[in-house]
């Protein structure tokens, strides 16, 4: 690190927050961290919570979880866990003690400090689609492998929409960049195109260390400032059933030791990678997540951790994953209950199995998103842009999902359910009486511009008006909007010296070979 790196500071702040991000293509709701004012849906009674907890503890005690990471096995051996080869069995009291060290609420502070996130409590945060290898939009009309340009365009949507709070993994995998240096190019794009909270894939020490260093550089931070509080996060998946692999645990240990946040999300598909019963699948998912969180708390007590759920079911006719199902919704709600039981923030997802942005895509995603709301989720992954069970990213779907996300945010605004004298509006009712209407009275005129949610994508014209306007279906409207946003996009401000330092870092690491690959 150079001396001037330690002295520089980011020039973004409010200027960054106010910068144009696609001009005024649409009128959208302002940036905010929405607060869930509803009581969570809790399908489990006290005996149900205890039964699932007991199931998770017995899995950890009697069956155990494989840790395919030598360093983790050594740490867990030191902690007193029972090790048999790579199978680790845990004492429930140790699990409870370690998990109890994790904070129930924490912050993540990106390079634009006005975009700081609160994770936990009743705050809901939504992130972009992450990690599909393929892309679909209406101009192409078919599923194609992702490219850097496609990835960058989806990052522009991530920055543009105020209802998207964090930049997850690659919104589409740019397979036109070699895997050894892909993380360098994409993180450079992410850090310059967006100023929102960043994610690192835990896929080998080089990638994790590179991303942490790039986030530190982009924030104009010293190493001490970077480690003082979370500036970024990772998300890992267990290899269900009951297994944690080497690179993901390795990445989390590296992030934990530098004070960065960790999300642990088992990917348990009932009937394939977990029991066919949802209670059994949830119990297994909890066991897989809790033991990893306990490991990280033992290594770095108090490190921010989030427990994730990705419990759904498979189509028993084909074996394909299904999303947005009634079972998915209930599993999400049940995991939310258990997350509160353990005092941990929770992550879930906005997902679907549809192949194109059609009706199925929207009802399955809407089910997933509302299950997240009902469960008390704090971080919603894949909230915009996901198709084909995570194999396709679509800009049209991204924009359609953002309409739903804005509606969820509006739904939670306390003024809708306010019950003061102005809201009861008795004087207005008296003035209209038994005849007339409310359109022209002062009570309505004072409030009509902000009384109701105004969509940016939905078309409320009648059929004849819609037909006269070109009979444009929703995905096509979203496609036109996508093109206009990208055409008018302007990156958020970044100090030129910081941008140059980022570019130099990328060039140096490329010259060193980047990260090793198997191909």
TrEMBL record:
GO terms for molecular function: methyltransferase activity. Residues 1-23 are annotated as: Disordered. The keyword Ligase does not apply. One of its GO terms (biological process) is methylation. It comes from Falsiruegeria litorea. This is Methyltransferase. Its EC number is 2.1.1.-. The lineage of its organism: Bacteria, Pseudomonadati, Pseudomonadota, Alphaproteobacteria, Rhodobacterales. Pfam families: MTTB. Signal peptide: none annotated.
């Amino acid at each position: 690190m150079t001396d001037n790196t330690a002295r520089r500071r980011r020039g973004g702040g409010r200027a960054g927050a106010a910068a144009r991000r696609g001009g005024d293509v649409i009128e959208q709701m302002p940036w905010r961290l929405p607060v869930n004012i509803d009581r969570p849906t809790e399908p489990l009674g006290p005996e149900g919570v205890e039964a699932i907890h007991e199931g998770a503890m017995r899995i950890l005690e009697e069956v155990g979880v494989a840790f395919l990471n030598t360093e983790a096995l050594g740490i867990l051996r030191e902690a007193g866990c029972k090790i048999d080869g790579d199978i680790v069995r845990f004492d429930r009291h140790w699990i409870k003690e370690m998990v109890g060290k994790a904070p129930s609420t924490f912050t993540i502070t990106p390079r634009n400090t006005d975009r700081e996130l609160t994770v936990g409590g009743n705050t809901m945060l939504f992130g972009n689609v992450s990690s599909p290898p393929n892309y679909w939009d209406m101009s192409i009309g078919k599923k194609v492998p992702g490219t850097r340009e496609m990835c960058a365009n989806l990052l522009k949507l991530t920055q543009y929409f105020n209802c998207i709070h964090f930049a997850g993994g690659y919104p589409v995998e740019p397979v036109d960049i070699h895997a050894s240096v892909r993380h360098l190019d994409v993180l450079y794009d992410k850090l310059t195109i967006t100023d929102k909270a960043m994610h690192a894939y835990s896929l080998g020490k080089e990638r994790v260390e590179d991303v942490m260093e790039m986030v530190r550089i982009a924030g104009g931070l010293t190493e001490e400032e970077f480690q003082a509080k979370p500036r970024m996060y990772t998300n890992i998946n267990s290899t269900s059933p009951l297994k944690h692999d080497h690179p993901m645990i390795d990445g989390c240990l590296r992030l934990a030791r530098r004070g960065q946040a960790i999300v642990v999300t088992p990917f348990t598909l009932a009937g394939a990678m977990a029991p066919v019963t949802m209670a059994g699948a949830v119990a297994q998912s909890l066991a897989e997540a809790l033991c990893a969180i306990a490991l990280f708390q033992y290594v770095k007590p108090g490190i921010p951790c989030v427990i994730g759920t990705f419990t759904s079911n498979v189509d028993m006719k084909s074996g394909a994953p299904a999303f947005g199902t009634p079972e998915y919704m209930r599993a999400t709600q049940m995991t939310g209950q258990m997350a509160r039981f353990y005092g941990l923030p929770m992550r879930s997802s906005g997902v679907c199995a549809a192949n194109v942005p059609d009706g199925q895509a929207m009802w399955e995603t809407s089910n997933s998103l509302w299950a997240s709301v009902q469960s008390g989720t704090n971080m919603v992954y894949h909230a915009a842009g996901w198709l084909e069970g995570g194999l396709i990213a679509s800009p049209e779907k991204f924009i359609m999902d953002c309409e739903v996300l804005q509606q969820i945010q509006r739904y939670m605004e306390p003024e809708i359910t306010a019950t003061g004298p102005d809201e009861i509006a008795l004087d207005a009712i008296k003035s209209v009486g038994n005849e007339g209407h409310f359109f022209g009275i002062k009570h309505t005129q004072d409030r009509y511009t902000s009384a109701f949610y105004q969509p940016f994508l939905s078309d409320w014209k009648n059929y004849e008006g819609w037909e006269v306007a070109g009979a444009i279906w929703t995905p096509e409207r979203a496609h036109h909007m996508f093109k206009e946003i990208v055409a008018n996009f302007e990156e958020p401000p970044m100090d030129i010296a910081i941008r140059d330092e980022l570019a130099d870092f990328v060039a140096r690491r490329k010259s060193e070979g980047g990260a090793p690959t198997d191909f």
